[in-house]
Here is the input.
Amino acid sequence: MLAGTGTGTESRNVHGQAIAITVFSTVKPWGRLWLPVVFVAARLLPRSQERLARLSFIHFARWALIRRLPYDGRRLRYAHLFFESNFNGGWEEYIDAFAYILTRDMRTVWGSSYGFPDPLPAAPFKAYIRRNELEASHFYSAYPEATTTMVLAGLELAGKVDALRRRGERMGPEAFAAAWRELLTDVQGSL
Amino acid sequence: MSADRAGQACALTVLTPVLTGEEAALHDYLDGLHAGGSPLARLPRTHFARWVIVPDFVTDPEQPHDDPLGCAHLLFTSNLDGPLDSYLDELCERLVPEAEPIWGRCAGCPQPAAGPALKAYLLHNRIRTGQFVAAYPRATVAEVRHGLDTRERLIALAVRAQGLEPAELQRAFRAEFP
Here is the structure.
């Protein structure tokens, strides 16, 4: 297994570059109604999802509201908000980005949880997440060597290299060399 | 689109109660998986996945009342490619050696922990997603790996190709990307 390079969290939350964060928080009674509205709004108005996706170190993230235990259908006294993220980099930097860049989104999602201190200043917010975080018993990434940026770059490059491969079959060496230089100029930010 | 989906990617969340007295053994077993590599690698449609033992919900000092889980629960989540139904078929077929010591320690798990009965158990204990975000929602694991491999090979070729004549460059490119 690739040695963990993610920082600021327990080793079981790390696989290579990837870090797992798993958080449960207890939701105030009004959050039972509020959060489903927030989730539907996020799907219908994808700007918040786009803002999250622009945080270039998140591979996948999700929230879920647990009102009943699925096994026996027992209704919980409070709803509980589950959050998980698969990201790269450092735990501290991740929460900082949430606090400073997605301040309003974090208030919208976690504002209905008991004890939520507001994202700013970031230190109490980090302490809150730490208190509510659970360590993974086993965490797996299919490509532990890769950051989100590397994945996105690879996906972009694969298409462009394939296009050059196909076009290059009909090119002479000089034309190919020019197309190669053009490709490198085009993708230099992804290398 | 369903809240469990982002592009072709799907979010699976399963929460099952751990049998009384089995929590420590389950923890030890999952902890031991680190040493020998992950069985989840046998599910090639899995981007990221985790097992987490939830001993109980955290009680915040502001909460008027406790809200105990009653017993420890096992959380399993996966970020996967394509339809959930066939993914669970694969899981219940390919993770048979691990399913027994993992979900076999959970209440209500079928014996043996395999096949359609295990699939039904996991589906029954599924939690629906509220919001699911993916940075590359249209890319499968295979496409991600292909992209990463292409990037590495392109970087290596760009270094090697410095100073090559056009004909040599074209030959080197064709050899690298046939």
